[in-house]
Amino acid sequence: MDAIKKGTIFTISDLENVRISIGEIVEELEAKEWEPMGPHPMPGIATLRNWDFKLLNRYKPFYAPLCDMCCLCTYGKCDLTCGKKGACGIKIDAQQARIVLIACCIGTAAHAGHARHLVDHLIGKYGRDFPIELGPSIDIEAPIIRTVTGIRPRKLGDLEDALNYVEVELMNCLSAAHTGQEGAFIDFESKNLHVSMVDNLAKEIADIAQIVGYDFPRGDPEAPLVEIGLGVVDRSKPVILCIGHNVMPGAEVVNYLSARGIGGEVEVCGMCCTAIDITRYEPRAKIVGHIAQQLYAVRSGIADVIVVDEQCVRTDIVEEAMKVKTRVIASNDKICYGLPDRTDDPTEEIITDLVNGAPGALILDLEKVGEVAVEVALRMAPKRAQLKALPDRQELKKLAESCVQCDECRRACPNDLQIPDAMVSAAKSNFDPLAKLYESCVGCARCESVCRAELSPLNMIKVAAEYEIKEEKYKLRAGRGPVLDTEIRNVGAPIVFGDIPGVVAYVGCPNYPKGGREVAEMAEEFIKRGYIVVATGCSAMEIARYKDEEGKTLYEKYTGAFERGCMVNIGSCVANAHVIGAAIKIAGIFARRKLRGNFEEIADYILNRVGACGVAWGAMSQKAASIATGCNRWGIPVILGPHGSTAYRRLYLGRKDKEEDWYAYNVKEGGEPFYFGPAPEHLIYAAETKEEAMVMTAKLCIRPSDNPRGRMIKLSNYIDLHERFYGRLPDDWHLFVRDVTELPPGRRKELARELEKIGWKPMKMPPGKIFDPTNLERFRNGWK
Amino acid sequence: MVEKDDPWEIANIPGPRRGKILTPVIAARMIKEAKRPLFIVGSLALETELNGKSLTEYAIEIAKESQMPLVAVAHTLKAFLERGFEPDSSMPLINIIDRLRDADWEGLKGAGQHDLVVFIGMLYYIGSQGLSTLKHFAPWLRTITLCRFFHPNADMSFPNMSEEEWANYLDELVAKLRMG
Lengths: 784, 180
Description:
heterodimer; A: alpha/beta; Helicase, Ruva Protein, domain 3; Rossmann fold; globular; B: Rossmann fold; seven-stranded parallel sheet; two-stranded antiparallel sheet; 9 strands; 37% helix
């Protein structure tokens, strides 16, 4: 039967033995009124393949195999070294792309699973017709959903429709990784880009759902400042520590406390993105830190109860919690930790068992989680008051004396930290070298897994850095959510023309090569240079962990509005969608491009015009892989830290020395492709040092559409940073000069002489000197 | 204790093919015999000192004695310029690896793709991945590392050793290169 149109009147007679099933009611008029449908609504796995190939032809996949073998089927292990094929015929390049596909699918599944949990829960609570309203300053409520699916979500049920699409695409992409399916690396990469675009969609669904369902800030530039740091927890109160990425159980803890009227008597705090999202729900909640500090926090014994939800929770959390008599409540069926399912047990019985020594419980009823967590914390806190979790300094010296200097801890450390040398000092009662390691420690504890003397270097570092940890008290602006349409109206033109030299987004995990301070330093450098600086997730937290001489964090020093020189916390991992969303909104609001089902045109717009660059300095997870790859499909380049080159195996690199790669069409000029220069030079790139990353960030904000003044500003930043860190002009700066008017005014003569020396010629200028680039052939003669 | 040819990072075991131990004598011979060698200096050159001598200075000596073109990667260029040495190129490690895997690249001097690449001062894990790329995708190229720790992804690598031993290895290499 055809779909029933809303408002249709129909009559059924003789109802006997008839079953009526009403599926979807099509709101035809409403669908028509907001925008005509573009060419690619709900694109399938190969719909945007041509776009992907355009990207991959310019930004060729670069593989750095982490493992030379394939171990995915029973033919294996297959040695793929140096051109050898596996039993199924696969080669090393395709195998790398395949592993990346699996990683991107895992990342997407994590976000989609999170979104599904939220949407189902909120629809169960409020119904499918619960409205999506993001306030008077946001008309384009869901730029990714609109652009990819063609759906304009007006109510929660619409999010479910978009989510159904996500799940189908995810399934198809993952199926391509099966033995004997996809075989060409280039097509694996197209699927990587596809599933990662789908990941962007899942994140947007999740964040919109929680914004409306939990009344989070709706793009509030003045979202409240919240407390963050290992030192902010008031240990005189019972403490509940929520870990993960899903706000729902934490929100129920807050709700239960509020219902009992004891909100001020229990500390509710969080780690990882759950922490960010709880503070979007209840600003009095506190953020302890991110995944790198998880063991430090758990082992310190601060928590009476740990509530885990999903993603980025240590898999040994129950074991670790037991050591310090902390009880664990698992609240999500994705991570059950072998705990008994107590969901249907009487609440008081669960509480009693936990207080009497049960290590934890799986409770899949969110309200029950809230009640049990609070009641157990209230009863456990007095029992745990005298708990001694870690050795003292006297013991530290003795422990250090037992170190056998085998170097295994150092070899196991992702950052090659000089733990053995610090042990020698500690054995002589000098604990400073150990304490100094704290800042660069990623908290993985691989050091203790290999220790022949059965020491815990991580615990010893924590004790040595006791003072620094207690002083960790900072302010972070709560995640504000989407960028306002009104803000886009103000910054759209300056971004596209280059007057605002770029939008830099610090995103991703805390697997930093030399500690997180580098992220804050990078962020402030670009703030001072007038870039728009935003952050999400662990990076947003990390940036808050450093104060200036006046004791202020970047969030206290700089505006939270999306404008030149800002420091914006967009929100948790899923809020990364709003960074891409802002770029899409520039196309939709400033350039009046149609978004609906129009991915290719919008991505082409962003690639050529929106000078945005992501920096995932400590990217670690599969989610980070899909987040970054998703940005790439939209034309947004991403810089990884050095660990990113190791673990992600694949980059997309441009070759500025190959002029033929940098041609596009200049709209209205028609005819032959036009050379626009190598911008942005790479799509996903790994830097070795902070300094290299900063120079590359400035360069990757350059876009073909920059007007002469905008290009001059961007070029000035690139040259200036390069001269500061490298000691002289970059050797490629001339590639970005199209005309001498783009040289920085104060140095025009000097730089013009340099150009003359190397035989530089002005770039052929398009008619009217208007740069109007597109990589899509169908627009070569005009925007249609 | 770590063996001489254990991967310095414990879990860095790439597969069946692994590099062999390199000595200063063999390194000097390989450099001399190569037609178009290339020398790549990583970011650890900025922060490593051996007996009061900067790794950057060692790199300069090796480059001068061998006449190998030197690529300063990451932001090491400044350290070379401050010592009055002009590297042949400054580019990100990722970019030079990307060019070395391209059979059609004409090399740093435009004289053809390189046949030997010599690394020093790389951050271990990023260096290891760069070597993995070259192992798989640049079969025409031999790779050797003069770093302090053993790299299984290189064709040949200095073994794991103490700083003192490393300094001795580098001194011996410079001496062998000087002998011609």
